[in-house]
Specification:
Helix content: under 10%
Bound molecules: beta-L-arabinofuranose
Strand order of the largest sheet: 1-2-3-4
Number of strands: 21
CATH class: Mainly Beta
CATH superfamily: Glycosyl hydrolase domain, family 43
Structural class: mainly beta
Number of domains: 1
Distance between the termini: 55 Å
């Protein structure tokens, strides 16, 4: 009898929490896009940490822009309701990077492009790409800043991520993925190339040489890896153009292993008002979201603003086309 009562209680509790999750999913009404309007932000990497908040780590386009040369001064934003966002302020800037050969970079360019952040061993690791020398596009390195907190007190390490190898052409858009067994993977994606490798548990060295990802179609940049129901997903931006200008879309591929080979699945986010596209995918409070950027505020490709929309999966795990809202 006691066991029956207990299992009844478990069923009731489970039903109640399912219901709560369903209600929560259905009642979230997102605010207007772009959702950060006081700064120009791009390349949003969204993460959910143990404090129950969702954090976004984007890059910042500095006005006036000079291509993407003058990007700098990473800020962190967070929310607990997907509507009200806190700007936690700046965490890292180019001037903090001890190994950057700044004077040699054309026109003092700061080149702080798309970052990512992960939590491991009690610390937050913030990874960012930055050129270490001229010619800048052949000499990208991945910098690391570490903190005990998700949105402040980051200290840039005096060395870049070790083990990247000699070929660092277009080594931009770092992305980190931690699998269920605790193994961390590092990926980058730029210049039409996407590579990945296991990361050492110290989070500052690759544990093996980078290998290029197989099976991606029309890959341009902006790698993002996540796992859902045992399926690994790799999302990226393509090379699509329209009317003679960039109009990149987000595509994805799936695998049963974190380093592929990958099976191409298609486009899930169409072009925005921006030449580039760069997104991240995350589940928060029972709802999946895609973060990306547009030029809806500025009308200029190098002054971008971050956006978020709901993401839906079909029963077979494929991703539905995102309805971009404004
Ligand atoms: O923001 C600079 C670069 O533009 C990023 O690294 C790319 O993904 C593209 O968004």
């Amino acid at each position: 009898m006691r066991r029956l009562l207990l299992s009844t209680a478990v069923v009731v509790f489970t039903l109640a929490s399912c219901q709560a999750q369903k209600e929560n999913t259905e009642t979230v009404v997102l605010g207007p896009n772009p959702f950060i309007t006081h700064l120009y932000t791009a390349d949003p990497s969204a993460r959910v940490w143990g404090d129950g908040r969702l954090y976004v780590y984007p890059s910042q386009d500095i006005d006036p822009p000079k291509g993407c040369d003058m990007m700098d001064k990473y800020h962190v934003f967070s929310t607990d309701d997907m509507v009200n966002w806190t700007d936690h302020g700046q965490i890292v800037e180019a001037a903090d990077v001890p190994w950057a050969k700044k004077p040699s970079l054309a026109g003092g360019a700061t080149f702080m492009w798309a970052p990512d952040c992960v939590y491991k061993n009690g610390k937050y690791y913030f990874y960012f790409p930055h050129p270490s020398d001229d010619p800048w596009n052949d000499n990208w390195k991945i910098g690391i800043a570490v903190s005990d907190k998700p949105a402040s007190d980051f200290v840039v390490l005096d060395h870049w991520l070790e083990g990247l190898g000699d070929d660092t052409f277009a080594m931009i858009d770092p992305n980190l993925f931690i699998d269920d067994d605790g193994q961390t993977y590092f990926y980058y994606g730029g210049g039409g190339r996407c590579a990945g490798a296991r990361l050492h548990d110290n989070m500052t060295q690759l544990a093996e040489p980078l290998t290029f990802m197989e099976g991606l179609v029309d890959f341009h940049e902006a790698t993002w890896v996540f796992k859902r129901n045992g399926i690994y997903y790799l999302t990226y931006s393509d090379n699509h153009t329209e009317n003679g200008r960039g109009a990149n879309r987000m595509k994805y591929a799936t695998s049963n292993k974190p380093l592929g080979p990958w099976t191409y699945k298609g486009t899930f986010l169409g072009s925005t008002s921006c030449d580039t596209n760069h997104g991240s995918v995350v589940e928060y409070k029972g709802q999946w979201y895609v973060f990306y950027h547009s030029s809806d505020i500025s009308g200029r490709g190098n002054l971008r603003s971050i956006c978020v929309d709901k993401l839906y999966f079909n029963k077979d795990g494929t991703i539905q086309m995102v309805q971009q809202t404004r």
